[in-house]
Amino acid sequence: MNSCRSMLLFLMLVVAGTVQAAGDVLLIESIQSAPSINTPRNGLTMGQVRQQFGDPASTVAAVGEPPISRWEYTGFSVFFEHDLVLHSVIQHPVNN
Question: How many domains does the chain have?
């Protein structure tokens, strides 16, 4: 009975390790194949972003404390804390 449990545990660990490794490979391939898109760097003001990238296609009002807002551009989103860029995110197409 103990050998069955040991074998089952071993197989579960092997499968879990294989799934983790596959996920790492997919992530690396995704990063390597990501298009080179120029996005605003952290710390820019809203005015600087608007000057360098133009008007956003849409905006999402600030929520929370500190207030976090989002501007949507074609291909990327910009997140602001107050009026400073907190992070820029490249939008990836959904593959079904």
Answer: 2
Domain identity same for 54 and 80? yes
pLDDT at residue 18, rounded to an integer:
47
SS3 56: coil
pTM (predicted TM-score): 0.62
Position 51 scores a pLDDT of 98
Instruction: Enumerate residues 6+ apart whose C-beta is below 8 A from 58.
Output: 71, 72
- Residue 95 gets which letter from DSSP? P
Letter for the amino acid at 54?
G
Q: How far apart are CA 93 and CA 85, in angstroms?
A: 23
| Structural domain range at position 27 | 1-33
